[in-house]
Amino acid sequence: MPGQCSRRYPRPVRAATVADVDGYPEYRRRPDGATAQKRIAGGQTVTIDSSWVIPYNPFLLRTFDCHINVEVCTAISAVKYLYKYIFKGPDQVTITTDADDNATIDEITDYLKARYVSPCEAVGRILNCQLHGLYPSVHALDIHLEGQHRVVFDPDNEGDALNRLESAQDNSKLLASFALCSSDLVATADLTYATVPARYTWDSRSKQWKRRSQARAQGQVGRIYYAPFSSGEKYYLRRLLHIVTCPKSFADLRTFEGVQYNTFREACAARGLIADDQEWHHCLEEASQIQTGSALRHLFSTIVLNHEVQDIQSLYDHHHVALADDCRRRLLRRGISNPSNERILSLSRALIRETMLKIQPTFDFTGFPVLPSDPEFSADINDLPSVVQDELSYDRVAQLAFAQQAYSSLNEEQRTVFNEITTAIQTETPAVFFLDGPGGSGKTYVENAILAHVRGHEQVALAIASSGIAALMLEGGRTAHNRFKIPFTIHSDSIRSIRAQSGDAALLRQAKLIIWDEAPMQHRHVVEAVDRLLKDIRQDQSPFGGIIMLFSGDWRQTLPIIRGASDADVLAACLHKSAFWASIKILRLTVNQRVLANNQLVSPQTQAFLTAYNEWVMHVGNGTQESDEYKNIGIPEWLRINDDEPTKLINAVYGDHATTAEDRERYWSRRAILHARNIDVDDTNTHVLGMISGQVKVVHSADRALTPDGDSHPGFPPETLATINPSGMPPHQLAVKVGTPVMLLRNLDPSHGLCNGTRLLLTHIGNKVMEAKILTGASKHKGKSVFIPRIRNRSGDGVLPFILDRLQYPLKLCFAMTINKSQGQSIHRVGIDLRYPAFAHGQLYVALSRTTDPSTVRCLLPKGHTATPNIVLKAALAHTNTAAP
Known about the structure:
Its EC number is 5.6.2.3. The protein has 30 helices and 35 strands.
């Protein structure tokens, strides 16, 4: 670049550290920092400031008394290069020795190969210092198919060859591991072939594994030689050797749940380590044993929409009878006596298409192999709703009754909001509102009352939320990405994704009101894209195409989550940075209805306690609670548990699980432990699972590494992929029990209450499908039984140096969850782990405000600590202090 040296100095000054497009850090360089004068080549004097400073680590600088450039390795290629660089050896040169000018020159000249030894290296070698090392050491493990291990023998001595085979003189490490597991079932119960070197050493003379002594307790890392996919059965054998514990033979490796399979591939498929269409056949077969047609059609639609099913027609043909299980009864209830089999199947196919459109309204049936319903029986499907009809199908009388009942119970602030919005709709005055209020102020309640009022007058009102959990709390709620078909990767000028002639476009043209809850956590680019979409579809250049918009949320809670972003980047992504914010009218709710309702049921002493707790939490959220110079705030003694391990906190929340009189669904839905980090969530979930009685079922995923183009990435073997657990993706090894609570990690079907964050109770664990009851969300969904199949989960762009494709149940144990995941949920008994403190805006406030009963909240801090950091970006709150004009 002009004005820069070959190393790109001086670098640009910036107020905060950010990640560039490739993930490398652009460090903070203050423009008003210290400067110095330096004379450079040519006698020129230049001013040196922070833009010239090479990245450094103060500790390394002082320890080694020399400069060490510190950067971040963001790709596997960098790690591979550095590893090779360490072992490549010194610089070398080939030289020749020539005689004096007067000496005779031989025809053949001596060549010497020499190496350069710097003073530093010379001192290190003279003092016998260790120049490099590898810790822990790696033990290479051979792999071969049955009867294909290497045997060394004398071809002229047949007797010796037979003797060597029979006496296992040429026993392979793999065969020796089988013998080890057979001889000591207890000690090897949890060992796989790859983990044998951690506890045993290989005796090359006796060809046996021998137990490590206590003095050499630190074992090696086992690495099985790589077998490419093209090696066939050897590839699948290698997959099993990383999974199966205590294998005693090749036949043992091919056995799963009492069934011995003919090939290693079949055994891998049975364990879920690979995926093909047989998985979906087994999934539907399992489900058909315990549920009827409606649930099976939903499961079939989920499979087709979330997977690359190779032969959809075959999948339908094999299960068409089960998929139409309830259609005969449906036709009989409509007065159609003795319906033919063709008519029953026709209705079934129509209902499948209806279900698929509810899950994914933009699905294109062009080329879809399953035929539509027969035109001969079109009368059977005339009452099936379209997208617009679905929004107009609410019971008018029931909606008006609910709106009137709700209005009578609203407080003065809530009535002001209700009247403001409904008046704008009646007068058809385009307006954009923002409803600001803390948790417990009744935002959702008044929004549902407004929705019911509009729908009761046979008008279209759309309920939108930025998260799946928030969407479930609104009647007819959908996530913004689902309703507006917004891609998850979006930028400032993203274009619309809804066709002008589609049913969704027709719905948006008829809409009178859109309510968008949890708006503060949505990136403003998403909202701006919706603004452009509505202007285009409605041919109206008013904000949001002239629709009455009601955004709502609490700015004290989570703001837009951007990977690697600075505080400045987060603030720039907030909704109030959009151009239309200046025209927004801000409405406020300040009365905590939750506390007010409790005050009417409890003693004056408890009323004072609830009020004091609520006021303290509000000070935490506003950043006005007294703190020290490091923004640490004190945690009241009655809230605090001090320990370095989570056991006391776990017992405070779940210690009564075996003796409680509450039914299981109520018990698990009203408790949770909150952590700032996913790694702590996983540890707590594993701990609590061990406390619960029942047999553990372990389900493994089928993992692939893909390039951005969708091709297979060859650089990452399956055992490496198994160790990776990106945020928001299910683990490779999912351990569950019947009766345990799990959280859904994907928006499978919001219309059935299946959103990202929905908590469920497992009632059946099959090999290819799980059944569960919904624990949280809208009351109309709670208690419903649903099927959850394995689906494809993919990591986002830039998260890894490849795309991780994981076929797994989109579930995770939820005895514990992250603080961010808890937003929008009400929990009776809450444990908050602050050993690793909240690290982002609003996290501590969100954690403290989840409870419906403050007396059951407990915060875990390290021993000797009484305070914890409270991160609040006050710049995100300042604009809400005064109403916009």
